[in-house]
Design brief:
The structure is a single chain. The chain has twelve helices and twelve strands. The protein has helices at residues 17-31, 49-62, 85-88, 113-123, 137-145, 175-178, 181-190, 199-202, 209-216, 223-241, 257-263, 310-327; strands at 8-13, 36-42, 69-71, 128-132, 155-159, 194-197, 206-207, 251-252, 268-273, 275-277, 288-290, 302-308. The longest helix has 19 residues, at 223-241. It has an eight-stranded mixed β-sheet, sandwiched between helices. Strands 7-8 form a two-stranded antiparallel sheet. Strands 10-11 form a two-stranded antiparallel sheet. The structure holds calcium ion (CA). Calcium ion (CA) binds at residues 14, 16, 19, 46, 133-134, 255.
Amino acid sequence: MKPDPQTKIILDTDPGGDDAFAFLWLASLIQQDLAKLVAVTATDGNVQASLTFTNACKLLQLTGLDQVEVGRGVLNPDQAMANAAMIHGHDGLGNLAHTLPVPHQNYQTARFSDEILIETLTNYPGDITIVALGPLNNLAAAEIKSPGILQAAKEIVLMGGAFRVPGNVTPEAEFNIAYNPEAAALVFNQCQNLVILPLDVTRSLIFTPEMANDISQNAPDQPITQFIQSLCQSMSKASLAHRETQGIQGFLVHDAVTLAYLFYPETLQFYRARTDVETVGQFTRGRTLADFRHQTKLPANAWVAATVDPVNLLACLIEDLKCLGTFS
Ligand SMILES: [Ca+2]
């Protein structure tokens, strides 16, 4: 099933190595007229807000989408959780950001991401899909300023949480939720239009250097394919060092799974549930929960991905990234 070609997407992102792969996948789908990118709302997360803004601008420039507005991330008031530069490099893009084109957008003069979210959702109620790839600082800020605004989104498709598997930054919590649990809890509590792609499904999405080679072979000299190769090498090294891939050379393209849901839904299976975020536990802060009890409970607010077909999902990603190489 192909989505409505008029599907309008806001990408809320903290690039981020795996964000970059989601970005490139979306760029390919846009070039194939399957999606429209309305705005990018950068968010504080993997690295600080100024860097995620610049990285988002650079990725847009790389893919010929630099006319799209980029918002600057609302800062996370709680700085207790370290960012993820140990995985994504000090620049957020595997220390490769300097190899990408210099953006024309300016962080200091950019609008804040929550402002863009509020304006766009107000102008297109029921028509915007938010694809959220980082901590939910911007979404929560928009909801606080304009209560009810997030329900105006068609869907909020987010990568985050760990329901029946361990976390990745604490024994119980996944990074995007743990970085700002209060923001995540607010979004979970105010919305019934959530689609959650947790670690439960992303842990088996290992993108390997062989896959990068496969994508590159038809256009090895293109900046995009060279970036894919280099980023894969850099991320794989960090991921192996942090034992994220069961000893396999490669890295987890967590964020890309959001696009699989939107464009290749046959690669995933979901359950409908009431979900919540723990905000106070000494050991469980940032944990995500689904209520599986067979009794009266609060209404469901989310579809949660439970299983994935990683071979088919990665094959779809690879085929679309090959198209991107030939477009550039
Ligand atoms: Ca991310």
